[in-house]
Amino acid sequence: MWQIFPGDLNKTLAWKPEIDLHLERTVGEIGAYVVVSAIDQSRVRVIPAGKSWPVEEVRDVLQEEAERKERL
What we know:
Blueprint lengths: L1 E3 L16 E5 L7 E5 L5 E6 L6 H17 L1
Antiparallel strand pairs: 1-4, 2-3, 3-4
């Protein structure tokens, strides 16, 4: 079981139960894993269930992503 990064929840809204998903290790992102959809290659960052996201790091990542969207 996995917990999805709060900023990635919207990516999962289009996922249907029959979609093939696979887990990959990652480097340089918040969390050590991503779940990838086989259909569109969308990726969500995850941590094992029961673990806690580091609050300050989550806040920083969400702020950076919001600023990046504003520039687009």
